[in-house]
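Note to self: user wants both folds in one dump. Writing first protein now.
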Amino acid sequence: MVPEELKRCIAVGSSPEALAAIHRPGAAAALWERSPLSRFQHWIDSLPPEQLPRARVILRPKAVCDALIEITRFCGTPEGPENNMLIEDASALALIFSDVMNCPYLQLRLDVVQTNACRKFHVDAVTARLICTYRGTGTQYGISGDGSDPTKVMTVPTGSPVILRGTRWPEAPLSGLLHRSPPIAGTGETRLLLVLDPVEDPAQASEVAYLH
């Protein structure tokens, strides 16, 4: 449940349509709250980290499904119904995000994280970014008026996609909503994240940066 003080800048819903609310004036984030199927979660949580899919590609949204089939095969992710669920869900999120952002291409990342990557609260230097944590602790977020760490930190539920506005979103000023990857170094936790960024021209695309 999102606290009252965050509701003014975070749109939350229980259906895919909730993600389109990122265009609502003043909405710094849009969250689709959902619970993963228990059998899928058990499967993804039980995989050895070396079998989790990893990738960074730029492609058209309709090509995501075929690309993920090849990526999971290359990474040795076990075939089966749960792997199909992962591919189908990530492909569906790619189509939803591309429709919400009206972009012809996407940069897709599948990140396997076992360190304190991006542990500092920040705003990404993109127009908007979709993040869905399939395994491990979800993205953490909170409000800061001066750029310091938020005093109240919330965590996106595992399996719930969230779209976060970045510094290149045309509406200004920024809301003060910051986010980070949860610090997990030394805990033995392994996270699997799907990250989607809009791309207008693949020929001009470069490494996506973020601002601390």
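First done. Writing the second protein, which came from a different request thread.
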Amino acid sequence: MHRTLLRLIGILQIAGGLFGLVAEVERLFPWGGMLDMIVALIGALLFGLMLVAGVLLLEHHAAGTRMSRWLQLAQLPVIGTPFLSYALHAGAHLNLAVIIHRPLGLAFGGHLGSWHWLLAPAGPHDWHLGVNLVALAAWLILRWKRA
């Protein structure tokens, strides 16, 4: 069962990394503002690393497990504030977020076969802070990977 879950994580990283990398490279053209280009380059780097980490994970390399752990940690937070917004996922996400507004609210959403990268100096009026539950589960599985 554990090996099957590791394969699933690898496959999701490969698929999400590939499609995210293509999307970020497309975002670079036509040349936009400097901030947009920097964010797209960071996204392309992250998705490229996810692609490589997924391949290494499927090949049972220790480096693939280490890279995947770090990349899953990068996918954990979902932040939306008027000052900074951040979200990253490759392959799948299941987000649980608290919307800090009067009254407080919960948001829950997810998707399989998706990718997303957001880093922005501004965001929504209402704050929301959350966690990607798929990334959390993947990190836990990778954390307790048997040799």
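Dump finished. Worth passing along: The radius of gyration is 16 Å.
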